[in-house]
């Protein structure tokens, strides 16, 4: 489904269901250089289990138009603008990595619009290695390889995907390879530059859930601890033998955590 | 900078797709000889049927043993996933029915496995799908044969029986310029000798019956998607971009991105045409895949020895082998098949006695019989011809047709 937001065409996958105003709504926000397909193993399920679902291609990503904004806060503003365009008074925000920071920023600054926030594969501050950033800046395909290598826990490098016949490494590589020039670099840069995390955590009204991978090398669980400590009453689900591609590596566990929390 | 720490070919061929059974600790991939799977509850069943959640429903669609083979082959070919089928032919059929309907057209190398030729030439037209065959060395012929309704270009890594090396990068460019994908039958090279997806092909298929198994005891096929073709941009593949009523209006490209083709192929083609592989065959083929690299190396070494012998035998008139400088595609082979080739072809002048002598000697030389197999020769080439194809194992008769240009006229 396409919606025009601030003169920009924004794509959102709806999980195969029509919008039903009587149901709560979930917005899924993907990570750097990814797109809505990152949520394929959750969005359709949630859409058939009592929720309106919009798995966005964030502005400047995937099928959406526009440019990637210069900060996480502006990216969060674009998500709220999408809600405005859809006349959504409130929604639960479920974000991954860059999308998790975006969800946090939105939940901290638009308290009455965000009913719950789920942060998957998050670290704060989200440090990005200089070598990785440099390769991304050069649009060197090595950056995609580094990302997909580090994003999968070692057991996932052997495969055994939950989707029969899916080779996770290959699929993830293809998604980021087609993200387009500068997309990864811009995404990583705004993640690294985001400094509003603790403030957002302080202002948070919505219930918060963290879903982390115990073997996540992109956003190590220990790098999320200060943020977790700053949020009262948050819940954390730690996925075992899981890297940074939580929604694919442990798709069923993520689904259960979402159903339980939302 | 450290290289990405992706697992390498040999490790993948031994481990990819397998999670050691957490309960029994079984080292080998278990054979899940089951037709069906227990659902936790009605909601679990419904969500599986509606593609909301992942898992196995019924072994026509997917099976845990087969899924290991699928992932393993996808990893070796560098794809996003794979579907294994009852035979190589079933994989070819699955690719075609997933991509197109009656009224469509295919451009195919004329130098393909005889069964593929028959299927496309004589059978598919009954279902409204026509094929134009072209010389695989003539790239312009491919370009010229593409029509508005063409939906697929097909070739083999190494032509059969002519041993033409397909210029995969150039052919991919031609297909992509027409917004259609390139399918390469990589049976004869295997991912050990060539990875067509890395060279620009979009889809790869195998007769796993051959080198992947390597033992000649199990039929099987595989279809692997590289995940790079942009179905939406092309606009020529409504099966992947338009709503499918079979799953409540799902749009595969939108829902699954790079996995769109395989999801459609599994949830429609395998589901409805039913050419699934048996779990036991998947297991048997997995045993072969584990040793793929060592076997292929040996096959290449053997082929080189046979070529040496043939080159020095007086009765042998010509020897065709991509590694020989006299082969028309020698330079291309160095680039695309740097590890070597397994197949060769030779012609003898003095028919038939000396020919049979050469064949007998070659047969003794060889460590394998049927194409890709590791035991004694089982098939003799057509004795009423004076040309034979071999792989470091001669192939079955069926691998060359008597009226094929390189064979006819002798
Ligand atoms: C190159 C090639 N492709 C496809 C096939 C068909 O495969 P199968 O016999 O497994 O159906 C064969 C079989 O000989 C083959 O050699």
Structural summary, described in words:
The complex is a heterodimer of chains A (262) and B (410). Chain A is of the alpha/beta class. Chain A has one domain: Rossmann fold (3-Layer(aba) Sandwich). Chain A has an eight-stranded mixed sheet with strand order 1-2-4-3-5-6-7-8, sandwiched between helices. In chain A, helix 1 packs parallel to helix 12, helix 2 packs across helix 3 and helix 4 runs antiparallel to helix 8. Chain B folds into two domains: 285 residues, Aspartate Aminotransferase, domain 2; 106 residues, Aspartate Aminotransferase, domain 1 (Alpha-Beta Complex). Chain B is built from 16 helices and eleven strands. In chain B, strand 2, helix 5 and strand 3 form a beta-alpha-beta unit. Classes of the chains: A alpha/beta (262), B alpha/beta (410). The interface between A and B is large, with 42 and 54 residues. The complex binds pyridoxal-5'-phosphate (PLP).
